[in-house]
Amino acid sequence: MADGKDGPDGGNPVGRFLFAVRWKLGALLGWDKPDAGVGGRVATLRDRLPDDLREGPQGPDLSAAPFTSVFQTHDEWAAEYANKTMHGVMHIGWVADGNGGYRGQMAVLVKPNGRLGSLYMLGIKPFRYLGVYPALMRSIGREWRENTARRTAR
Question: CB 3.0 to 4.6 Å from 49: which of 24, 41, 54, 63, for a disulfide?
Answer without folding.
Answer: 54
